[in-house]
Give the backbone structure.
Amino acid sequence: MAETDNPDARLVPPRTARFGEGPEGKAARREHGQSVFGRMGQYLHDVRAEMKRVSWPTASHVQSTTIITVIAVIFFAIYLFVVDQAFSKLIVGVEWLLLKIAGFLGLA
């Protein structure tokens, strides 16, 4: 029997936590009674703790990804230039063809 067959069944499952009751919400409630400087100090402490957990790339990794990015940018710039020139020539060719057809039919 499907859940929708029961007319008394709830359509939305009950919420287990309210907004702000997660780990972030507890920290926010803890800071509520502090002064502006206390909250600022707590923020800077949290930022410093988070920055210690960041995995920073090595200089060689940054260099290799930068080189790959520059090569990709140059490749796509050349590719888009070629495609743009091809479409430009195609439009000029279609315009020339339409003028020839219009001249042949006596419309131009």
Observations:
- The chain has two domains: 10-54, 58-108.
- The chain has a mean pLDDT of 84.
